[in-house]
Structure formats: C-alpha cells, structure tokens
Amino acid sequence: MLVPIILTVVGSATPLLFAALGELVVEKSGVLNLGVEGMMIMGAVAAFGVAVSTGSGTLGIVAGAAAGMAMAFVFGVLTLTLAANQVATGLALTIFGLGLSALLGAGFVGIPVAPLAKLAIPGISDLPVIGPLLFAHDALVYLSLAAVVGVAWFLKKSRAGMILRAVGESDISAHSIGYDVIAVRYRAVLFGGAMAGLGGAFLSLSYTPLWNEGMTAGRGWIALALVVFATWRPWRLLAGAYLFGGVTILQLYSQGAGVAIPAQVLSMLPYLATILVLTIIAAGPWKGRLDAPACLGKPFRPST
C-alpha cells in the first residue's frame, strides 16, 4: 500500500505547495496577502471552465494562473496603490473569490472533465515502485517541484531576488537608493496570484477533476500557515507541504480502515495540525528566529 499512499500524498501536497510558494515570495517583499483562498478558488473555477469549454487542459492551466493574477491585481491596486489595509483587503478578497467562483461555476457542477495527462515515460514508468513514484505524475506536479528550486535560487542568488528581499526588510532604505518599491511588490503579488491560481487549477483538473463549490476547503489558509511553518524558506516549505499533505491523507485512510474515530474529528486533522504547529512555533524557544520580513504587512507610501 506504500506506493498508492505516497502518490495520494503528492496529489494532496501539490496545491498547498503552489499556493504557499507564491505567498512566500509575496511576504518576502513585505506584503501580507490573506486572499490566498480566494485566488485559489478562482483559479480552480477558471481552469475547469476553460478546460471544459475548449477541451484543452493546457489552456485550463493558463486560465487558472491568469484568474489568480487578476485577483492579485485587484489586491495590489487596493493595498499598494490606494494603501488600503492589507489584512482587511485580503480577507475581503477571499470572501469575494468564494462568492464569485460559486456564481461562475454554477453551470459546471456535475460536468466531468478528463484529468491532466500523466507524463509517463515508456519502459521507465512501468518499473516497480520507482516508476510510479517518480515518472507517473502530471506536468503540474513536476512544475511545483521545479518552482521550489527556481524560487530558492531566485531569492538567494539573483539580483532581482536580493532587491525583493531588501524591499521586504527595509522599504524606506530600498526606496532611498533608487528602487521602485511599489513596482517590486506588484510583481511579487502578481506572481503569488499566479501560483495560487495554479494550485486551484491542479485541484479542479487533476486532484479531483470536477468542479464543486468551495472545493479548496481551507487549503489557502493552510498555505498561509505553511509559510510561517517554513520560516520563509523554500526548502522547508517543500517539506512542510508534503507533511501537511500526509496529514490530510491520514484522515482518508483512517476512515477507510474503519478507525473508531468520528469522521468529523478526522476531517479536522489538517487544521488541528496547523493550529498545533503555529502554537509550538509561537511559544517555542525559536520564536525569535522566525526571520519574518521586517516590513511585512506595513504599507509604504513613496515620498514625493
């Protein structure tokens, strides 16, 4: 049973990894976007609607990323251009996304769609254990792993990544030496929206290839918690996403095995784990070493 369990964990972790990785970049720039859930659900409905209408999963993926970016752009205009409160705007974005997705997706309920094709390699994918574990996933799974490598390199090695981190640590200093803080943060916010949209697209096109209202089921909030759990480091985020994916799957296998625990309690496991981890981090001896960006959540108004 080990191989199917691991494959299920990978599927459960991938949308979390996409959304959390995008939010990590956003927060590294000093912006706190709590609208991840809203961007994910809009990405899910846009991806599913386009895939059903065109018959192309690739166009569906692109539409999911675009929908997430569109939601992120609204957030950026309100918080970066108009200097609205980031927390309130992010919460409003989630509520708006959940409502709008339910409206747009009403006509797609109950319509099946072919799941994304697996990138099987003849001869290799058929190998026992190794084949299905490494060479039998769809493109979005591999893209999520490549994104971790790309974001880690970008933040650590690239000049643009260092500028983004500088903006998140001291926006006034970055502005004083000539960097456009608002432009840097806009790009980060749009990237975060695209990644959340891809997470939603994976849910509706691969994980459960159908559309259901509210199908993100709180994954956006778990993604936000994962960023703190990973202390804003991409590699720790990868481990955390798969850990939380495993907790999510644990409830399903426990129910299938007939464990004498109420189904409602098992359904709460991922969220109980999230609360527990955040409590331990906040109260533990490593509290002072979280390395949160110094300007996180603080508005910036460029001086004239």
TrEMBL record:
<protein>
    <submittedName>
        <fullName>ABC transporter permease</fullName>
    </submittedName>
</protein>
<dbReference type="InterPro" id="IPR001851">
    <property type="entry name" value="ABC_transp_permease"/>
</dbReference>
<feature type="transmembrane region" description="Helical">
    <location>
        <begin position="134"/>
        <end position="155"/>
    </location>
</feature>
<feature type="transmembrane region" description="Helical">
    <location>
        <begin position="61"/>
        <end position="84"/>
    </location>
</feature>
<feature type="transmembrane region" description="Helical">
    <location>
        <begin position="38"/>
        <end position="55"/>
    </location>
</feature>
<feature type="transmembrane region" description="Helical">
    <location>
        <begin position="214"/>
        <end position="232"/>
    </location>
</feature>
<keyword id="KW-0472">Membrane</keyword>
<dbReference type="GO" id="GO:0022857">
    <property type="term" value="F:transmembrane transporter activity"/>
</dbReference>
<dbReference type="Pfam" id="PF02653">
    <property type="entry name" value="BPD_transp_2"/>
</dbReference>
<feature type="transmembrane region" description="Helical">
    <location>
        <begin position="237"/>
        <end position="254"/>
    </location>
</feature>
<feature type="transmembrane region" description="Helical">
    <location>
        <begin position="188"/>
        <end position="208"/>
    </location>
</feature>
<dbReference type="GO" id="GO:0005886">
    <property type="term" value="C:plasma membrane"/>
</dbReference>
<keyword id="KW-1133">Transmembrane helix</keyword>
<keyword id="KW-1003">Cell membrane</keyword>
<feature type="transmembrane region" description="Helical">
    <location>
        <begin position="6"/>
        <end position="26"/>
    </location>
</feature>
<feature type="transmembrane region" description="Helical">
    <location>
        <begin position="91"/>
        <end position="114"/>
    </location>
</feature>
<keyword id="KW-0812">Transmembrane</keyword>
<feature type="transmembrane region" description="Helical">
    <location>
        <begin position="260"/>
        <end position="283"/>
    </location>
</feature>
